[in-house]
Each structure stands twice: as structure tokens, then as C-alpha cells.
Design brief:
With 656 residues, this protein is α+β, with helices and mostly antiparallel strands. It folds into 4 domains: 2-168, Tetratricopeptide repeat domain (Serine Threonine Protein Phosphatase 5, Tetratricopeptide repeat); 177-445, TolB, C-terminal domain (Neuraminidase); 449-541, Immunoglobulin-like (Sandwich); 544-656, 60s Ribosomal Protein L30, Chain: A. Helix content is 26%, strand content 29%. It has 12 helices and 35 strands. Strands 2, 3, 4, 5 and 6 form a 5-stranded antiparallel sheet that branches. Strands 7, 8, 9, 10 and 11 form a 5-stranded antiparallel sheet that branches. Strands 12, 13, 14, 15 and 16 form a 5-stranded antiparallel sheet that branches. Strand 8 and strand 9 (274-282) form a beta hairpin. Helix 3 packs antiparallel against helix 4, helix 6 (83-107) runs antiparallel to helix 7 and helix 7 runs parallel beside helix 9. The longest helix has 25 residues, at 83-107. The relative contact order is 0.06.
Length: 656
């Protein structure tokens, strides 16, 4: 208010828009009471001045500013506490404020240019977007100086234009409450989901028991629910040591459900107000949460993590130094046994405003987050951005109305198939104030379809579960796109991969030959309901006579020169022989039955020798290696189909 009055005085140079002495006297007396903090008396005095001269523009301006910022707390003290009354009162004062602003700008267009911005904000609030656009554009035409008011006008203009367009083109939206098994009369929010869509972890806030010694009235804990026959089970509080008497929340869970990151505040081992913690599920038991340390956590606020399918990259929110605004999205990578220094996602994602609640999809290229930037409906809006193959993020796009509203909309996650979104919302008809809802995501906001693979890793000889490391390679460029593992208790693994690409699965475990397997391109039909694909893997122990096929060693048709995309597979052979120095192997070449048997025999031997020569060039002693061509004599599948012939064309390792 003081800034407004200073600007007004500077513009008018102590000369009023009226010559009416009585009106001036009433105005100046009202201003004195205003400086004393007596707003009601000031408003009465200003109205009396306008009764003397309705063309007194300064009185209109101050009265408009008072009415547009009126404090209704005094009304509640006077016995009018109902929400309906407050809403009606606010609407009345907004209308009066607009009336007074219009009296100024319609009388003299350039009398006080910031009045156009104040009027535009009121029109924007009341959804009069055409009027708001006119107001902001007029100010920018009248006053071209760089100032905070100019920034306000530009922000308001973006908001009005966006909201007008969004309301004119609503997106499909039919949210469904997840039901009483998940939601309660308390608040549920910040959901996270495993890649198979079967396990949902979320934060619940509820009144703290009086018997606890904590200094907050409400407690936040992590809850879990599982999907059985299309129905969510009754949510259960996760056991200690995940939950404690302190607050735990704002979590994410890895795609296989065995690593969880979450936010905890004011802990003894914390580095700032709120820090990131990690715990691991080993054989069905969660480990004690561990602070990620000073490399990630700072003296600022860190929270709301989301974990990439590569098993190495963690995105999170922080207001640490070096950002672009209040809250920014950052990322850190687990490399060499430690977390790297966090890296800001840059101006493509972050702005001078707040960016929060990120979710990196299972395709590892699509990021959903919330922001209160001007291109929104109001409050926090949901946005989506995609990263190209060069690592650059596209311009974020708003998910649209009515997914986004004039309130805060955030906490969005999306299923692996890209069809179903789950988010937290305050809306009528729920179990409590804030519940979890699901809805079908509009096609234009969907990520790349991700296929969930799940299965069991076992010993090929006795069927017992095996703890293993699983790495998935994009065969097009040789990069690692995902890392996961199988549990030693049951041998289970889960991994999600973007559809439409060729992958190589590489599975390793101590005491076993590695396993390699190609996964062909998948149909990218986004209208299909994707289900998890089961791929069970049997590992062969390192024993004489055991053999494995090198499925990712490639040659041109009819040739024996090793193609570049074979490098990763052959590096695994070198690693196997290096880690097992007493191991001796035979390299066997095999073909299908297309062509003359003599030619196939010769080709298989040449291919086996090519691998033999490669390993020797990598430093493996020749006395540990031998090679042999088997031609078409040892098929493992029928030669009557393309798929069978492809299985028969292979290079094998046999333990000698």
C-alpha cells in the first residue's frame, strides 16, 4: 500500500485531479487515518470525498486498492464466520474495486498506468479473460519501462491468454476415487507405483496420538496397497524401520519395489530442514533408512524424489543455491559407489517460479511435474516434458483443463503403459479432504509405452532362486538403459523398458555363466492394454559340460566378421574369463540348414574362430580357449520357421 501511494504521489506531483477543497480535505484526512492503520475509517473518508466529487481519481484509486486487498478476518470476529458469507463478501469487494478502477481508467486512460494491471488481476480472478487481456495489453502499451509492474502485466497476460484457450478446449477427464481401501478420512497424497502396477505406496497424514512426544500435531507415514484381481487391498502402514515416530513422506519406489527414497525432516543425522533418505528391501525386510549424505543433501530443503529405470539417476526438488527460482528440480547419479553432485535440470524445466513433485516415467524420457508458472490455470499446475536422445528437454506443456484447475494440482504418476494416471486431489465426494484418484491420461500427454518384464532367475540344474544383477542394453546404440537385480529369496525381478526398441538382457551371478537374451521390438499400439511380460531366466553354473548361447554376437548374413553391436556381449565373455582364471572354454559356431551343409560347416567354424581371435586380442591366453564349427548338425529349434532358424544361428560357450 505504501509503495502504491508513493507511486501515486510521484505521478501526480502533489496536484490533485479535483479542485473541490472539501473533497481534498476529506481525502487527506482519510489518508492520515490510513497511515495509522485504520482502514475502515479511511474507506469511509474516501467515500465521503467521492460524494463531494465523483471525479476525484486519487480517491477512486486508493479505495479500489483497499477493497481489492480487504482483510475479512474482522468479519469473522463480528460473528460472520460462514464460508458462504466470506465468499459473497469477497465478491462484493472485488466488484467495488473494479468499479473504482474503471472510474479512473475510463476517465483518463494514462492517469495512473498501474491501475490497468490491478484491474486486470481482478478480471483474471473472475475469469473475465478478454477484459483481463485488454487491461494488461493497455498497461504494456502505456508504460514500456522495465519494472516489477511490467513483469506483473506480462505474467498476467500469459495467464489470461492461456486460461482463455484452455477453457475453450478442455481435455477428456473423468477421475475415479481409488476407494475406501486406499483412501480414508485422513489425507492421502504423493503416490508412487512399481512398474508392474501392482504395488502402490503413498503418504498419509493423520492426527498424532497424544501419547507421543513429537512436537507436531499431525503425523505423516508411508502406506502400501497391492492390486489383486483389479482391486486395491486395504492400505497398511509400512513397518519399522521405514516408518517411525517422526514424519516420513514424499517418497518414490523403484520399478521393482526394492529400493525406496523418501523425505524426512529435522532428523538428528540431517543436513538441513528436510533431507532425502534411502532404504532397501532385502529378502522381504526393509533396511534402516540411510541419509544420502552431504553430496546430495544440503542446508536447504530437499525432497520429493523420483527414481529412473536406469537404477542410477535420482531426481528431486530443492531450494538450494544455484537454482532458477524458489523450488527447482535437480538430479544426481549413483556412480562409483557414491552419489554425484546434484545437477539442475536447467531453464528448459525450471523457472523463476516453483517446480515440484517430479515423476520420471518408466520410459526414462518423459517427466511430469507441477509448477506455478504463468502458463497455468492458477496455483500449481501439472506439466509434461520429454527428453530427446541428446539429453535435451522439450518445452514443458500444460496438461490442460480440467485436469488443472485454479487450485493446486500436483502429485501425478503414470502407469508403465502410459494410459492411467494417479494423482492427489481435493474434490467433493471423496473419502476425506484429500484422496488419491485415477484417470485415463489424454493421448497427447502420454509417454512412450513401456513394457514391464517380470520373471524369476533360477539355477538351471536345481531350480533354486538366484540373486543376480540384470543389465539391459539398447542394441541400437549400446547404451545401458536399465539396471535391476533378482532377489536371492525368491529370484524375482521386475524391469520396465520403452517399447519399439531391440534390447539385450545380460544377467550375471557369482558362480554362474552369464545369460544373454535378445528382446525383439514390441508393438507400440497405445490403444492396447499392456500386461506384464513374463521372462524366466535359468542360469547355468560354471561346471564342466555346461553351455550358453551368445545371443548378442552378430555377423552379416553369410559372413564371419564380427559386427560392432557384439562388443558388449564379448566384453562379458572377457569379464567371465578374467574373474574365473581356471576356466577353459570351447567356442562353438552353429548355423541353420539354409544352404549347402559344407558351406554351413565352413561358415560356423570361421565365426567361432573370429570370436576366438577376438578374445586372444583382449588378452585371454590361447591355452584357455578352443573353437569348433558344428554347422547345422546341432539345432536347438525347428528349421521350418524364421524364429526357429534364428535360434539355430548362434555362437556358444561350452565349459571344458
Amino acid at each position: 500500500m505504501l509503495l502504491f501511494l508513493a507511486l501515486l504521489t510521484a505521478v501526480q506531483g502533489q496536484e490533485y485531479s479535483t479542485q473541490n477543497k472539501k473533497a481534498i480535505k476529506l481525502y487527506e484526512r482519510a489518508m492520515e487515518t490510513l497511515y495509522q492503520g485504520k482502514n475502515d475509517a479511511a474507506m469511509n473518508g474516501l467515500e465521503q470525498a467521492l460524494q463531494e466529487d465523483d471525479g476525484f481519481l486519487e480517491a477512486h484509486l486508493v479505495l479500489a486498492d483497499l477493497m481489492s486487498n480487504i482483510d475479512l478476518a474482522s468479519m469473522e470476529e463480528k460473528g460472520e464466520p460462514s464460508r458462504h458469507y466470506r465468499d459473497e463478501a469477497k465478491r462484493h469487494y472485488r466488484d467495488e474495486a473494479k468499479r473504482h478502477y474503471r472510474a479512473v481508467v475510463e476517465s483518463k486512460r494514462d492517469f495512473f498506468a498501474p491501475a490497468w494491471v490491478n484491474l486486470g488481476k481482478l478480471e483474471l480472478y473472475d475469469r473475465n479473460y478478454d477484459e483481463a487481456i485488454k487491461c494488461f495489453e493497455t498497461y504494456l502499451e502505456l508504460d514500456k519501462r522495465e519494472s516489477e509492474t511490467e513483469l506483473d502485466a506480462k505474467r498476467g497476460l500469459k495467464m489470461a491468454r492461456f486460461r482463455k484457450e484452455a477453457l475453450a478446449h478442455p481435455v477428456p477427464f473423468n477421475p475415479q476415487n481409488l476407494g475406501a481401501a486406499v483412501n480414508s478420512r485422513d489425507d492421502e497424497y504423493l503416490p508412487s507405483l512399481t512398474a508392474d502396477g501392482q504395488t502402490l505406496v503413498f503418504t498419509r497424514r493423520f492426527p498424532r496420538k497424544a501419547t507421543t512426544t513429537a512436537n507436531t500435531k499431525e503425523e505423516e507415514d508411508l502406506y502400501v496397497s497391492t492390486l489383486n484381481n483389479g482391486q486395491w487391498s486395504r492400505a497398511e502402514r509400512m513397518p519399522e524401520p521405514v516408518n517411525s515416530t517422526d514424519n516420513e513422506g514424499a517418497q518414490c519406489i523403484s520399478q521393482d519395489g526394492r529400493i525406496m527414497f523418501y523425505t524426512a525432516c529435522n532428523r538428528n543425522d540431517g543436513g538441513g530442514r528436510c533431507d532425502l533418505y534411502m532404504c532397501v528391501n532385502k529378502s522381504g525386510r526393509w533396511s534402516k533408512p540411510r541419509n544420502l549424505g552431504s553430496a546430495v543433501n544440503s542446508g536447504a530443503w530437499e525432497g520429493q524424489p523420483t527414481f529412473s529405470i536406469d537404477g542410477r539417476t535420482l531426481y528431486f526438488v530443492s531450494n538450494r543455491k544455484g537454482g532458477h527460482g524458489g523450488m527447482d528440480i535437480w538430479k544426481t547419479t549413483f556412480d562409483g559407489g557414491q552419489w554425484t553432485a546434484p545437477e539442475n535440470l536447467g531453464p528448459e524445466i525450471n523457472t523463476e517460479f516453483d517446480e515440484m513433485s517430479p515423476f520420471i516415467h518408466f520410459d526414462d524420457h518423459t517427466l511430469y511435474f507441477s509448477s506455478n508458472r504463468p502458463e497455468g490455470m492458477g496455483g500449481m499446475d501439472l506439466f509434461v516434458a520429454k527428453r530427446d536422445d541428446n539429453g535435451r528437454w522439450t518445452q514443458p506443456t500444460n496438461l490442460g483443463y480440467p485436469i488443472n484447475t485454479e487450485g493446486d494440482d500436483n502429485n501425478l504418476i503414470v502407469s508403465a503403459d502410459g494410459r492411467t494416471a494417479i494423482f492427489a486431489s481435493q474434490r467433493d465426494g471423496g473419502q476425506g479432504k484429500m484422496d488419491l484418484y485415477s484417470f485415463e491420461l489424454p493421448v497427447e500427454s502420454r509417454p512412450t509405452v513401456a513394457i514391464c518384464f517380470k520373471g524369476r532367475v533360477s539355477n538351471a540344474k536345481d531350480g533354486q532362486p538366484v540373486a543376480s544383477d540384470i543389465r539391459i542394453i539398447d542394441l541400437a546404440n549400446g547404451t545401458t538403459v536399465a539396471n535391476t537385480s533378482s532377489d536371492g529369496k525368491n529370484g524375482l525381478y521386475i524391469v520396465s523398458l520403452p517399447a519399439g526398441k531391440d534390447y539385450a538382457f545380460h544377467v550375471t551371478a557369482n558362480g554362474f555363466l552369464f545369460h544373454s537374451q535378445n528382446v525383439e521390438k514390441n508393438n507400440e499400439n497405445g490403444n492396447e492394454q499392456w500386461q506384464p511380460v513374463t521372462v524366466d531366466i535359468a542360469l547355468h553354473p560354471i561346471e564342466s559340460g555346461e553351455r550358453i548361447a551368445l545371443r548378442n554376437v552378430f555377423f552379416e548374413t553369410g559372413r564371419w566378421e564380427i559386427l560392432p553391436e557384439s562388443e558388449y556381449e564379448l566384453a562379458k565373455v572377457v569379464d567371465l574369463l578374467t574373474k574365473n582364471p581356471t576356466l577353459k572354454i570351447e567356442l562353438g559356431g552353429h548355423t541353420d540348414n539354409v544352404g549347402r551343409p559344407e558351406a554351413n560347416q565352413r561358415l560356423s567354424e570361421q565365426r567361432a574362430k573370429a570370436v576366438y581371435d577376438y578374445l586372444i586380442n583382449k588378452g585371454i591366453p590361447s591355452n584357455r580357449l578352443s573353437y569348433k564349427g558344428y554347422g547345422e548338425t546341432q539345432p536347438v529349434a525347428t528349421n521350418d520357421t524364421n524364429e526357429g532358424r534364428r535360434e539355430n544361428r548362434r555362437t556358444e560357450i561350452k565349459v571344458l
